Amino acid sequence: MQDIRNSDGRKVCQVDKRRATVEIRRKDCITQIRFLPDGKAVIKNSKVIA
Question: Helix or strand or coil: residue 37?
Answer without folding.
Answer: coil
